[in-house]
Known about the structure:
four-stranded antiparallel sheet; 48% helix; 474 residues; alpha+beta; disordered N terminus
Amino acid sequence: MSRNIRYPVHGTTQAPVTQTIRIRTRLYVSKQDRLVLESLARHFDSLQSRDLARRCKDGSNSDNTAWADRKRELTAECSSRWAGWITKNSNDAWSTARRNQRRHLSDLESAISTIERKLAFPIHRISERKAIREAEAVRAKTENRKPRTLYFGYRSAHEHAMKRMRLDHLKSERDKLKKDLDDSVVHITRGGKYLMKNRLHLEETGIDENTWRAEWYAKRRSFGANGETSKLFGNETIRVHLDGTVEIDLPEKFSHLANVTKFGTTRYRMEAKAVFSYRTDDWLAQVRANRAIAYEVVLAAFGRIYLDASFTPAVSSTMAALRDILADPAQRILSLDLNHGFLAPAVLDHSGNLLGRPAHISLVTEDLPATTRDGHLRQAITEVLDMADLYGCHLIAVENLGFHEMRASGREEQRSSPWFQKVVCGMPTAQFCNRLVAMASRRGILVAGVPAAYSSIWGAQYWQGTLSSKSHKI
């Protein structure tokens, strides 16, 4: 008599559908355009810094009334539309900093518990560990069972002492972080703390003050305006016409730079044209219908100036729900395994049976600059989505690797292991998942996160031993 054995594994999550589009174009500005944009960037840089300091000072006591007061204070130096963008950015920066504090506290707690657990074990050198493992293997064979999992402490007295010192340091950092969380104190540096610290060590970094200052300004000097539905071309403050003409509503302080003063307006019309070469049709549809478009002018490094446009299309991609896809026996699923240096795809049927193994997709991101790494990610994800269209897959399943938890305590578990530094820390898992979800949503393809129990944990527990034996009995 046969019986069906089921191993219920829960935890499959559907990734949120991303419909917002952000596109960028470079503005090839004239000298006058650059003069105006740099003047505005310096002005808004000062206003953003001041408002962010005010927002951090308010802490968790900030409410809609405090927000309105900040906006009213800024309106006197720009306009209500500019002030709305500045205050919203400050609120978002504060909220992000609070989330990062909680995440960092969780990582510290994980590292502290790992060190305390390992310190509780006696010190065993490598030779001693080998002897204990061999003795356990012999004992398991004698008792006709599998060898037990053995846990060890640190390898030497020196390492044991260093870890005690590190434990004290982590506890001190945890206590400070808890105090900041209780007092609603956040630490934000516009431009980045890493770049700020480099200012104190220019000789060690190998750059001069002018180069550092250019990078610092490139990180800080940007300004933008939120979109407004039913307004001409979707934005009254930064207006981009259908032919690419860019007009900027100037604060009263810069009214002398205006070249459009009809009906009492003070606007500056740029000589440079904005030409969006990506998703042009979506942007044109948004502009023609006067739907909201948020624009941001970015003064980047090397003197380059970019214009970013963000909007949500009126007609979004239609996507089936996860339960509908799983309920359809004819649906196919493209499963992805993110590895060090490549993606391993597999086409599955509704029941999870393997239908085909397409060729691996190269994804080399090791020791690459952030921009180059992002380009490699986009290229690999584009190939994944093309493959999903080719095989008729409406769902992409990706394993939840859990590398965040491993990175939090991996230093205490793996020490300076080359495998840990190269594989675990080198794989851009978060960037890959974020890019995949955003790009798949625009193709109408659903993304689901699958727990490791469906692959490595489940397979090792129930199938690996059976399939590795000489005689299979399933």
